[in-house]
Amino acid sequence: MREIGVEEFVSRRRQLMAAMGEDAIAIIAAASLKTRNRDSEYPFRQDSDFHYLCGFPEPDAVLVLCPGAEQEVVLFCLPRDPAKEVWTGYRVGPQAAAQQFALDCAHSLDEIDALLPQLMQGRQTLLYSFSASDALSGAQALGVRVRAWRKVLLGQERHAQFVPQREENLDALLHEMRLFKSPAEAALMRVAGSLSADAHCRAMRRCKPGMMEYQLEATIRHCFAEKGYREPAYGTIVGGGANGCILHYTENRDELRDGDLVLIDAGCEVAGYAGDITRTFPVNGRFSEAQRALYELVLRAQTAAIEAIRPGVSWNLPHERAVAVLTEGLLQLGLLQGERDRLIAAEAYRPFYMHRTGHWLGLDVHDVGEYQIQGDWRELQAGMVLTVEPGLYVAPGMADVDPCWHGIGIRIEDDILVTGGGCEVLTRDVPKTVAEIEALMAGDAA
Q1: Could you confirm whether 175 is annotated as catalytic?
Q2: Is 276 a catalytic residue?
Q3: What is the pLDDT of residue 137?
Q4: How far is CA 128 from CA 103, 173, 296, 366, in A?
Q5: Residue 181: exposed, middle, or buried by beta-carbon count in 10 A (0-12, 13-18, 19+)?
Q6: What is the pTM of this model?
Q7: Could you give the CA distance from residue 304 to residue 296 in angstroms, rounded to a whole number?
Q8: How does pLDDT run across 48-91, given as a tens digit for each residue?
Q9: Which is the catalytic residue, given 355, 378, 406, 428?
Q10: In the chain, which stretches have pLDDT less than 70?
Q11: Active-site residue, from 58, 411, 414, 438
């Protein structure tokens, strides 16, 4: 599986530096290792912004972008240390990093306090992520380090006029870039979608009453790992029965019971890019009458939302289409009473559908990018990737609701790439109609 090529990283850095202006400097910090317990760390996952601009895979590095007539890209990273590498693995080191990642130069991280103030000198604007609160080995927030480097320059009286006078949040520029996926990024997200779909299909085939939720989670994660992708894009949700009504249920510890539905929200991460699929299906392979009625309503809402996606439409249009279908269906099923448009205006559907219909998707599962511009919903454009995930959730014991609906939680989610002529469903390889799901599960049982 080919990842993003170095040429694309170079192009991204040039694009960002052009947007910054020639008198600016940007500082981007890599992620740090996180302690799990005592001297054991969680698996390392690179900071998404840092990865987007550099691709350098190690912790505790710092990337510096210096636009101007002679653009300069500088990396500070951990030095080679053969004694430590015996314990913790190979390090690239500054010399090899500059060559492998097409950087102008790279230095050891222990030189950063001496060299970075020099790079800042003469720049009017200093950009960094105000949200990078645990960067640089977790010792200090990046903003604290930035102010320390400015203080070094201010302490040199004759250079005081060359200290950056403004600090700006880099997120606005960088996250707008990340919102639009290149062909290479879209290709990776297709792979993530396909692998995620394969795992969901496998879970459907394996499911049967008496299994535990964690066993289906193990099926999902095994499917990812055997293809070489050890970490999911986010914590896998496997909610049987009423647990499916808990939006971010991750305990995955209960038994899957005959007659219940099970909701699985899981996605594979490929080269940093997330897949994000939710499917809901019967534990025993056959939908009951009530389950089928609510499920097909959610599916109609998702279909209407996806059909609305194309360049030029409002971000909010898919949500509006889904809400209209869900509200109409809840009226027909007797779960709501009144006039449809008034119920929509009053958000009467919210006890059953309390979240929005989608979010941006990319290097982060809930990816960066503004949803509104100057208070108005932005228009969808080619290259954006979003999820479409309507749902209905009838909590156990919900007042004034027929008990036949109690404990039914349903969500159907797919990943959608906006294209020049409409959209592409990146996760289309996992079934979602009642007939398709029941056939898949029955075929495996046979």
Answers
A1: no
A2: yes
A3: 45
A4: 19, 10, 47, 21
A5: buried
A6: 0.95
A7: 12
A8: 999 999 999 999 999 999 998 788 999 999 999 999 999 989 99
A9: 355
A10: 1-2, 132-140, 157-161, 444-446
A11: 411
